[in-house]
Amino acid sequence: MVSELLIVALTLLAAFLAAVAQYLFKLHLPRFKFNLGGILALVRSRMVILGLAVYAISLLIYLGALKLGQLSFVYPTFASVFLFVLLISKFKLHEHISITRAAGVLVILAGILLVVFTY
Questions:
Q1: What is the mean pLDDT of each run of 10 residues along the chain (119 residues)?
Q2: Which of 2, 76, 81, 92 is found 20 to 30 A from 63 (Cα to Cα)?
Q3: How far apart are CA 14 and CA 11, in angstroms?
Q4: By residue range, what is the domain housing residue 111?
Q5: Has this prediction a pTM greater than 0.85?
Q6: Distance, CA of 25 to CA of 46 (rounded, Å)
């Protein structure tokens, strides 16, 4: 039987990489204009291409975790992406994180912990 720790580690890595991909997309968007030229520039952007590559790696790792574990365990654990996005938003993008938003992510984290420790 595959270790639950391995499944959790793979799922957390996949979630982290998905959050990094979102960050890479966000880096390009201030220059994005929603017109044909803007869309063409978007798909040629290094940050968007890199973000798609990171997303693809995240998906492959997630699929590996899903192959090893139960969907009802892996998918809720992947919700840790919300925590990673919050941390990246705060420390890399210097976004303001309200107490309410942080509390919401902590509730999600509590749910993930319930899933992980009752597997």
A1: 86 98 86 75 84 97 96 94 96 96 95 86
A2: 92
A3: 5
A4: 4-117
A5: yes
A6: 10
